[in-house]
Amino acid sequence: MPQQPASVYLRHGQTPFFRLPVVDFAAAGPAAYAGADAIVIGVPWDASVTYRPGARFAPYELRRVSAMVQTYHPGHGLDVFTTLDARDGGNVAFPPFNAEITRALIEQEIGHVVAAGAIPFVVGGDHSIALPVMRALAAAHGPLAVVHVDAHLDTSTAEVWSEPYHHGTPFRHAIEQGLVARGALHQVGIRATWGGADEGDLAHEHGGVVYSVDRLADEGVAAVANAIYSAVGDQPVYISFDVDGVDPAFAPGTGTPVPGGLSSREALRLLRELRGIQLVGMDLVEIAPALDHADITLHLGAHVLFEGLALAAVRKRDRDAADE
Ligand code: MN
Ligand code: MN
Hints:
Largest sheet: 8 strands, parallel
Low-confidence stretches: none
Mean pLDDT: 97
Number of helices: 11
Bound molecules: manganese (II) ion
CATH class: Alpha Beta
């Protein structure tokens, strides 16, 4: 089902992601998502942050702002929402103060999306939500190639806070739980200071590649994207996009900002240049609307998500063309 015309959207006043149709909430389990190619779903959880909270409100605000994004992608030359049957899947519902229960409910709900044959596009929430999403995806696809945009490595240990699960640790668990294929973690925009000299060891020993902001500046974003594209080949790819990978000048609405990041233009180009990958899921996390100014970060987030949806649409178009 295509995007609703702006006049229709204005008339009914409801605000689904990208003016998309919503799923059948009366249906239980995977049936709610039957027939969809892509499900955009909110996970309004931010009780696992180490600094400023607020990301739990991103799904609601991103629905409002994403209505400004239209359906045709000039770069790829395709109508994303007629190529791809994308729907607003609502939010994962959970007690917003119990992390363990919440992780289980996220994994279950994303599992339903995957079981229905749809690609989940998950709007956080803080970055801790990526772990249960990857668990659900790896259960279906096997170990994933991961493109991780972030200022932070997110492979911290339990030593820091005496608690192993928070928004600074999802990729430590993902590696240790076998969710990430060896040599297939591609981390872009990394620049935050470390707690110690060994902070990068886990990902490095797993064959992960860090694409520093200096390498991005020296080689250009297209070259970095091409290196990632070549490396992932036809593996199932998960894109985990922490908005603090982007410079705070372009994305001020986030809880743990770090100077010196990607421009919004580089971030969007990076995603565009990945056209052809087998995208099986994506998250967009760490947008805290209360810290934003004039919706700058939200507008970026909406376009980041659209670029991800466009990648899925490109893949579907090319597959359909090959079948003919
Ligand atoms: Mn981060
Ligand atoms: Mn992160």
